[in-house]
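thread from #wetlab-drylab

HS: before we spend reagent money on co-crystallization trials with CO-5-methoxybenzimidazolylcobamide, can we at least see a predicted complex? here's what I'd submit
DV: go for it
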Amino acid sequence: MADLKALADAVIRGDQATAVEITKAALNENMAPGEILNNGLVAGMNVIGARFKANEVYIPEVLIAARAMKMAMEHLEPRLVAAGVQPIGKAVVGTVKGDLHDIGKNLVMMMLKGAGFNVIDAGVDVSPEKFVDEAKKSGAKIVGLSALLTTTMPAMEQTIKAIKASGLSVKTMIGGAPVTQAYADKIGADGYAADAASAVDLAKSLI
Ligand code: B1M
């Protein structure tokens, strides 16, 4: 029988080939796709998330683990859809207007996906209107904003204002190197996370 502990370990090691092989074997054995996801892939990413938070691993290890999970997900996703496994929540994530930095945003997205969220990538240099449109179109309950420049932080405030004015019932979370909890409070964001692992905890607490 396919070993889900070995699958989690493959994700933790960032071993793409083994992660894909075990996922395919588990699917061939008709193991429930939700079980493969939660007890294998997400379990592995949870370990990476905790280690990242504790400074035991760094960005490269997280990216490598997330890539292994992504490759395995390509095989699992069609079966998850067919089995009707529901994501734990839907989030739109993007870098705000004027800002092209996307490494942190991508890391946050990968960790959210790893935790079982359905994540829509709004991209970079995203206008407040586009965030509102993406949230409307997707029905997401969380909108995540990233900014790396002090000069683009005001775009976070404009985006949150636009979201509130649209009447959408969504929670907003913000992050990025120059952003702080005090800034989140000031602009009326529902939450701030300092890193990708904390972003997952925050997103879970917001839904
Ligand atoms: Co830029 N850049 N950059 N840059 N760049 C910084 C941010 C800067 C601090 C460098 C410096 O001067 N020391 C500085 C900003 C100064 C300031 O405003 N205070 C700066 C500048 C000035 C600029 C330009 C203006 C330079 C120029 O052209 N004169 C220009 C602006 C372009 C633009 O955006 N319009 C520019 C351009 C670039 C590159 C294109 C060359 C490149 C970006 C490539 C890319 O992203 N695809 C780049 C890079 C790489 C950096 C540095 C070196 C690294 C940023 C990074 O990716 N960090 C950066 C200096 C630095 O930070 N040491 C710098 C790694 C990443 C994983 O961390 O993004 O912080 P971070 O994300 C973390 C957390 O912040 C958090 O989780 C992530 C993972 O833990 N987080 C969230 C992020 N988003 C979140 C969202 C959440 C929750 C948590 O919820 C939704």
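DV: The mean pLDDT is 93.
HS: ok that's useful, forwarding to the group
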